[in-house]
Specification:
The structure is a single chain. A seven-stranded antiparallel beta sheet has the order 1-2-3-4-5-6-7, with helices on one face. Strand 4 and strand 5 form a beta hairpin. It has 192 residues and is mainly beta. The relative contact order is 0.19.
Length: 192
């Protein structure tokens, strides 16, 4: 699942964001709340070595950025739904991923040294289909990641944040059919 999440983020040009649900007494103040859709089609040559591929993207989502808790720290929530289709232009055969993913912050801590520690959750399902529409692989479940962020002197303003370190806290749960598979090998196998 993590492999495809990275591919989705880079292919669709989406930035993965997150939100915290905390029990703080201060009311959550929305900083930004938007809905978006990324629909695109591009030809990549070469792709996976020797393929000429059209990548069709249709990702819909929403992003909520809130300030909450007594310190007013910023939390993110992102919801993504959509498809990525990789078509081998030599054969017309496609490998398609259908996804539903939620990314959110679970906890944000100001470390008092110019950094924030963020515990983030990514959960959802990615279903991968072959050229005949048959379901091939399912990745589902969740992962938890701890981020160390330099807040550049502004702990309540995420615009200038820099991620210093990322640590996997909890590996993927659920079904992980693509975990030991090579995407490029699968593209050649299913679309040639």
């Amino acid at each position: 699942m993590k492999r495809l999440l990275c591919a989705i983020a880079s292919t669709a040009g989406l930035v993965v964001a997150s939100l915290v649900i905390s029990s703080g007494s201060a009311a959550a103040a929305p900083i930004e709340h938007e809905r978006f859709q990324d629909v695109s089609s591009e030809v990549v040559d070469p792709f996976c070595g020797d393929l000429r591929v059209r990548i069709d993207t249709d990702i819909r989502g929403s992003l909520l950025i809130k300030s909450q808790g007594p310190e007013g720290l910023v939390y993110f929530l992102e919801s993504l739904h959509g498809t990525l289709s990789f078509t081998n232009l030599a054969t017309g055969k496609s490998f398609t991923s259908v996804l539903t993913i939620i990314n959110k912050d679970l906890k944000v801590i100001d470390n008092g040294d110019g950094t924030l520690t963020v515990l983030a959750l990514s959960t959802g399902v990615v279903k991968n289909y072959g050229p005949d529409g048959k379901l091939l692989f399912v990745d589902s479940g969740q992962i938890r990641v701890e981020l160390l962020i330099d807040h550049s002197g502004t702990p309540t303003d995420p615009e200038d944040d820099v991620i210093l370190d990322e640590t996997l806290v909890k590996g993927s749960t659920g079904r992980n059919d693509t975990e030991n598979r090579d995407f490029c090998e699968d593209m050649h196998l299913f679309t040639s």
